[in-house]
Amino acid sequence: MPTLNQIIFWFFAFTAVASGIVMITRQKPMQSAIAFLVTLLSLAGLYLLLDAQFVAILQIIIYAGAILVLILFVIMLLHSHSGEGSTSKVPLQRPVAILLSLILFGGSIYLFASTDFGVASTPPSDMGTAQNVGHTLFDKFILPFEVASILLLTGLIGAVVLAKREREDSSNDAH
Amino acid sequence: MGSPPILAVLAVIVAKALVVIVVLLTAFAYMTWLERRLISRFQVRIGPNRVGPFGLMQPLADGIKLFFKEDFVPAGADKVLYYLAPGLAMVTAFTAFAVIPFGPPDVQLFGVPLFQISNPNAGILFVLAVTSIGIYGIILGGWSSNSKYSLLGALRSSAQLISYELGVGLAIVGVVLLAGTLQLPEIVKEQSGFFFGFLPRWNIFVQPLGFLLLLIGATAETNRPPFDLPESEQELVAGFHTEYGGMKFAAFFVAEYVNVITASGVATTLFLGGWQGPFVDQFPILGPLWFVVKIFAFAFFFIWIRATLPRIRYDQLMDVGWKLLVPLALLNLAITSVIVLIWPSLGGGS
To answer: Which of A2-11, A37-46, A156-165, B267-276 has the highest mean pLDDT?
Structure first.
């Protein structure tokens, strides 16, 4: 007799994997994006199951609410009429993609096989609250946190510089 | 006393969720009536007054009309997503209300607080997360309709919602810093008492700039005029829901008005002391009443500015969002942080 936790776990785990498969098999990018949304939401469900409420909410706000919406935006702007994928392809795209995915798959299998699952201790159930995540982040990992924010800032400035230069070029061409 | 039976607890939770859904649906119906009546008054017309006394049965008549409309799907539409979109919009609109407390937390049955559906640790972030899923209802509805007006409406809408979410989020952080918690009942409790003996200790008097930013941001987030560019009739027919009719259109309509009510609820909770008011300590049942009164004030305000202000242009909308709202919200956040740091007694954080 499985416990309630196990039933919920298998539900979310199955949904995550199934929608992941749907995502890479659809022809229309829009449908892939929606399948990806389901994957992200099931992962948020799994975080909730692990008492990581704060991480689960952030997963939804950042990945589902911001990043995926931007992806949809690009899809709608580029393929607004058909909603179909681009036909132009990099040479040898398919074999290279298969090779790279196999390497990634092998790597994760290796990690999975070499991990000793019996040892991991169960963290306290209030580990995932906003207060505790904040304390952990700012007491123990302040340097990586700040490095990550500087990296994001660099990316932000880089994007602005690139977009601005392009506009100046095109206005020069026009004159 | 032992712990209450789990079935009783479940029954209480389900019952209060159902009550809240019914109340929200009724509130939606009468908000449409109120809006039509008030706009008529603002424009020196009379408005719907034929169906029942004062036209009070008008929402019912509208509902019946929508129910019997033809159920059509435009040619070339993505069927699954076309049907999914209005449902998604409506469900997320109702879900977002779940964390808003509308009465004192000590009114309990079987240990379950009656005046709030759920109180997660992430509190106000839950509202932001659920509303960010609500955007998908609009995007998918606009895209799957296979119509250029719908698509343009959806594009505008998603750009608008993402832009204003940032300003709203930053404005909310100011309140969270003062309260030292994300949980809404705690934020309400923090606002009890008086300044100088007569002024309620509401956050609107502590964070006036934050309140203003939230109000502007909420108007844009709920697609209310003057920020209703996603469905500006003169340009886009009806925006993302151009190709929707009957009950599917009604679902979008419900979502829009429930979102207005939820936004008013969030603003009330964060800045106007939530359910607090005179005599609530003696009669806890007055809590929901004060809450409804405050929500009504916001609803009136939203209808009022719809009748007053013309729609702004799209580039103006983006300018207001990115060049005014976000910098001001950052300024507000910086000032609040410094003040909380200097006088820790003001903030509730440990």
So the answer is: A37-46
Contact of B78 with chain A, judged by CB distance below 8 Å, is answered with yes
Q: For the CA atoms of B272, B273, B279, B282, what is the dihedral angle to 10 degrees?
A: 160
Are the beta carbons of A34 and B140 separated by less than 8 Å?
A: yes
Contact B162 A58 (CB under 8 A): no
Helix (H) or strand (E) holding B182: none
> Number of residue pairs across A and B with CB atoms under 8 Å?
72
Instruction: Judge whether residue A81 has pLDDT over 60.
Output: no
Identify the contact set of chain A against chain B, taking CB-CB distances under 8 A. Answer: 28, 30-31, 34, 37, 41, 53-54, 56-58, 60-61, 64-66, 69-70, 72-73, 76-77, 80, 83, 128-131
- Other C-beta atoms closer than 10 Å to the C-beta of B72 total 12
Averaged pLDDT for residues A98-111: 92
Quote the CA–CA distance of B129 and B285 in Å, as a whole number: 30
Q: Is the ipTM of this complex over 0.95?
A: no
Angle A97-A101-A106 (CA atoms, 0-180°, nearest 5)? 150
The answer to whether the CB atoms of B155 and A130 lie below 8 A apart is no
* Cα-based distances in Å from B193 to B102, B181, B281, B287: 18, 18, 12, 15
| CA-based nearest residue to A64, from B266, B151, B155, B131 | B131
Residues A57, B126: C-beta atoms closer than 8 Å? yes
CB spacing of A73 vs B158 below 8 angstroms: yes
Of A57, A76, A128, the CB nearest to B129: A57
Q: CA-CA distance, B336 to B330, in Å (whole number)? A: 10
The pLDDT score that the predictor gives to residue A99 is 92
Q: B129 and B287 in contact (C-beta within 8 Å)?
A: no
Mean per-residue pLDDT for A30-54?
87
CA distance A44 to chain B (A): 11
Domain boundaries, chain B: 6-346
- Contact of B230 with B224, CB cutoff 8 Å: no
Q: Which of A28, A57, A76 sits opposite B125 (nearest CB)?
A: A57
Q: Which stretches of B117-245 are DSSP H helices?
A: 124-144, 148-179, 184-190, 203-206, 208-221, 233-236
Structure token digits, residue B38:
């008030």
From chain B, the residues in CB contact with A52 under 8 A are: none
Nearest C-alpha neighbor of B301 from the set B212, B232, B231, B238: B212
Cβ atoms of B230 and B154 within 8 Å: the answer is yes
Q: How far apart are CA A50 and CA B2, in angstroms?
A: 28
For chain B, percent helix, then strand, then coil, each to nearest 5?
Answer: 70, 0, 30
Supply the DSSP string of B197-222, one letter for each residue: TTEE--HHHH-HHHHHHHHHHHHHHT
**CB within 8 Å: A76 and B120:** no
Q: B183-194 pLDDT, tens per residue?
A: 888 888 888 777
